[in-house]
User: Fold these one by one.
Assistant:
Number 1:
Amino acid sequence: MSGWKTINTMGEHARYVDQDGVNVVLVHVDIADPQETSDVENNLYSQFQQAAAKNQVRFYHTSQKLSDGGGGVMVYYNGKKIEHKKVLMGSLPALVEAISAALEKYNSH
């Protein structure tokens, strides 16, 4: 159940995070546990599946490290990073809160 689109290049990454609205990006981390990464992706997507279906929030991930920049899950609103957490189940509450707040802003404009 993955509604996550794969980003393959830094150019794609820049273009996707710069879109208006809410964009969630999981940047691959070599040391992250693959099962936990999958659990984080599935959990986030399932919580925001309706908003994703309406294109109010978009989910992206990389299958490899794209740069020397840090990995993790980042939430962008109108091109500005508003949250950055490690790929851990313990990060979910903060990520859900950031996505929810950004969606609220997006839907109120």
Note: The CA atoms of residues 53 and 103 lie 13 Å apart.
Number 2:
Amino acid sequence: MVLENDLWKFSLKTYAHAQVAEYCLQLQDEFGVNVNLILWCLWLESRSIAISSEDIHQANLAVALWQERITVPLREDRRALKLLVEDCFHYLQLREQVKRLELLSEQYQQFILWRYSASVISSWQAYVKSEMSLYKNSHDEGFHDLSKDKFDQVDAEKSIIWKRPPIALAYFYDLNEKNKRRLLGIKNIITESDINGQ
């Protein structure tokens, strides 16, 4: 199984920014937010994809068991090893191996999310296509691509509210305004760094 994909590449570039890592870890440690879901939402937003609360719920379900049983215990082991002040070669080697396993576990979660993205993107594109068709039919002149500004739209037929991915994630975790701004701050760092332009 090849775990390398566009989401993983995006995440590596994004997380390399110190402030992004800091914000993500604060949200993880203080509110239990899954960093992989943050990065997944930011990746979708960088591609102008909106999502529904059901999309977030399903994405979380897809990775929750792996997160709880594999990733979190590896993270706790790595942090416990970090507290030990041992300077021997075998200790340092063990710590590095646990760190590598944790990273591989994160990568596998992202692979699951990336695979799930196909249905999310397909649903969003179908919605945008139908909206553009309706718009074109009712406004023959001045037709333009609506896909970039369709966030926070309601699909009455399916009772879906499309939201910007970081905002949908903030509602899923019931984050306060300060932490919603934190999520959007990460998005701004990405935009300013032109990570999503690649």
Note: DSSP finds seven helices and two strands in the chain.
